[in-house]
Amino acid sequence: MRLAIFSCILLFCVCSDISGQTFALYRTGTLYDSFENPSQTAFVTDSSRRYAFNFFIPTLSATYGVSGPGVPTVKKALYTGKYDVRDLSETEKKLSRVTLSENTYLLAFKAFYSVRYHRELGFSWQVRTDGYGVTSNPALIIFQDYNRVINDELNNTDFNNNLFNTHIYAQSYHQFSMTYREQYNKTFAYGLKLSYLSGIAYSKLKVNSSNIQFDPGLDDYSLYLDGDLRTNVYYDDMGRKMLIPGIKNPGLSLSLSTDHKLKQGWNIMANVKDLGFIRWSKNSYIFRDKDYKIKASAVDDSLWKDIKKQLKNKSYITPVNSKAEILVNKDLGDFDSNLILSKNLFYKGGDIAWVNSYQYKSLHFSATADYNLNRFFQAGAQVMIKSPNVEFFLGSDQIFKTAETKTALVNSDGTGGKGNMGASVYLGFSMKFGRLMSRWQNDTYIPGINIKTSENTGFFKKLFGKRSEY
């Protein structure tokens, strides 16, 4: 039972949607946008104050998606708490895919360093999770009703090899970053983001080949698996200490971003995001074996003990979910349109998104159409209140599926909705403070004059008291 519960959690809950990119926030001039796309500015010269801060109010982004024949089973497990595989066909060849992601800025601070060349310097602390899962129907069925799979195989003269092939990974880490942005000239800007990473958790299960062998005399069977298992935490090692950042699982990443203005209102932005790695500590686990054998009589809690005996402690390096992106923008005044291409560099997944935005005074409305390369479509919407010194936004990359999920959770309905399932939400807030940053010809601040008398008290005045003016 513990094996079934852990497998379901790992497959359907731990993974995080790689597709959650909050594309509607690209080129919005928000503090969040300036950290995710370092070439983008968070300030408006002559209008913004010098410092931007989220005041420790987290900027949250979380989303997930499920596609394939396993959707009904996931719906029941998520909405009703029951794991039910009766609707799954053991002969189905199509695979189920799960994607999900989380990106939370706990701290985001940026300074308008210089009006000349529009230089900006920022610091942030965020927590990220990325993951992906793909598996077959028999792999889902066997945890609850393995006799269905066995009987189906016995009724066929040719056994179906690779019946339980599975690929699941999930990675979570802290990211401490410094960003720098500069307007090189009137048409070209660039930015970079250098980050220190502190790993929280990593799990990867990859079954490359699998088959079943039967022993009619003993009325028993054995499951043979050839694959790779890596994790920095076993199921009984979990604890709060995992969440504390440190140097146990260190890593580095680098983001590079450029923004180029073309003629007739066209703009092109290009990014290479989070190109980096994490080195997991020597206390991490690794298991690599050819034809690992699991007998039918061992499919119970004792299987966990058997697996743990064969795990070896070893350090290893994993890449983070780096991306290559390009954005083409057409500025039409109050109306704005972005076409975005985003591709994961080391893991499966990517997006083709079209974002249309409309601005009315301080209100911004956006609609997003996004095709995820993990084979599902997303429609999103966003509302934002934004001035040069205050911003608040709320949105979803999967607005219709999120509404379905909310209704199903409230009603504990495991059959609601059609097609793929998913949910997404993001929100954020920031405010600017300090003196107004203006060009010298527009500046109302003159050093030595725009200072209160109480702030201009010198050493000798403190020593001898007030002196007469002349």
UniProtKB/TrEMBL annotation:
Residues 1-24 form the signal peptide. Keywords: Signal. Pfam families: DUF5723. Coiled coil: none annotated. InterPro entries: DUF5723 (IPR043781), Transaldolase_AS (IPR018225). Residues 87-397 form the DUF5723 domain. GO terms for biological process: carbohydrate metabolic process. This is DUF5723 domain-containing protein.
